[in-house]
Design a protein that fits this description.
Layout lengths: L3 H14 L14 H13 L2 H12 L11 E3 L8 E2 L2 E2 L2 H13 L3 E6 L26 H21 L8 E5 L4 H10 L10 E5 L2 E3 L1 E2 L7 E3 L2 E2 L1 E3 L5 H7 L2 H8 L3 E6 L10 H9 L7 E7 L9 E5 L2 E5 L6 H4 L12 E10 H9 L9 E5 L3 E2 L6 E2 L6 E5 L16 E3 L2 H4 L12 H18 L17 E3 L24 E3 L1
Parallel strand pairs: 4-5, 4-12, 5-6, 13-21, 22-23
Antiparallel strand pairs: 1-14, 2-3, 7-11, 8-20, 9-10, 12-16, 13-16, 14-15, 17-20, 18-19
Length: 492
Amino acid sequence: MASAAATFDAVKTNLDRAGQGHLLAFYARLSGAEQAALLAQCAALDLAGLSGLIEKYVKAKPAAEVAGAIEPVHAYGLDGTVNGKSYDRAGYLAKGEALIRSGKAACFTVAGGQGSRLGYDGPKGCYPGGAVSGKPLFACIADWILAVQQRYGSRIYGGGGLVIPWYIMTSPQNHEATVAFFRQHRFFGLAEADVMFFPQGVMPSMELGTGRILLSSPGEIGLNPDGHGGSLKALWSSGAIADMERRGVEEICYTQIDNPLVRAIDPLFLGLHRFAPDSSGEMSSKMVRKAHAAEKVGVLCKVGGKTAVVEYSDMPETLSKKTNADGQLTFDAGSIAVHVISVAFVRKLNAGAGGFSLPYHRAEKKVAHADFVTGQPVSPEKPNAIKLETFVFDALPLCEGGRSIVLETDRVDEFAPIKNAEGADSPATCRQIQTRRASNWLAKAGLGGVVPMSAGGEPDCVLELPPTTALYPEDLRGLSVAKIAAGEKRVL
């Protein structure tokens, strides 16, 4: 075993060659344990790979490139058509239900974020998501899993024997707190053995312009999560894919944590992903129609003949505003970060020689750090660093033949994200959408008269309709619901 001095010399030599020798500037003032931890962090850096990334993304600012002609995507629509032709919606739904009943589907949630933008100190998944109950976002997804297990398990096994395993990607920052939260809440009614946590990968934060890696403190490198695109590597390296294969799982239902209305397991989506003739069966996406041309969501489209997502900031303005003869946006397929990904696809991406990597995206951020000379904490007032992240949707063009289908869903039914403390995509708008959805579903079930309405035609109350009550509007038929008073808050 190499001595501490020899390890230090070897690490320092490599850092100096890469222009990152400053990372050991405060080494002498650290305790023995802190020194060992810092050396381990430094030794783990892919300095050769980082050098190339620094030249491309930090010292330069590459222009956004879209590799090919951009065309609208032909989504499977809410009206039961795709590219103007009807498709067998009921048939694909039945096929997806069969996949669920046979234990072929798993739930996968990306939950590495903190609730700091919401003024919440803790993992974002612990933030209240229920419009009335205030149940945490994690519990909202757990309820979907429980409801689907009950619906499709008890009919076959006679006792709810179906298990839908849940895989949760955390971050190094919130991993322990997330696991503790689940234990505190007894895994929200799910079996602990069927919930697996693993942290995503990280990248060092680098000084804007120079590419020097930041220290978060004199003895610790400043790291940031590598983006939701890192989930495709983390699923593999964590052993989650091996666990899925042991269980017989073939399809991964991918969601992010911020949307309490997300249909975490959707049989229609599964059926289309697996069996539609234009699907590779490797990775598929959901969309909602954009609210307006300037809405800040990625756009699902065809790029060079392959399904892809073009970020709103990279979409040419002429295309963003382009309309059809009926006045509707031509490029209206807003991505909502909901996918089905096959286990085989994740294996294929990771098991090849040399592994794989998704393209990095550059973000200028304000990052607190230790001063390079004094080691004292610095809190910048303007962006001082570059963070590099990967996005999961960049895997779409890697599907066989670029064939990846898109399913349209209703915004009110399935998309009420909590991203900001106020304004769009806030807790307030989430409550409004949850209430509107519950009211719509009650009306479809013949119970619209129980909901008080304002002069503007909006529900004059706050409602929460959990999946354990209804997975679809028709599940509410025959339900006894007393008339709701104006201003009342009720969980149905």
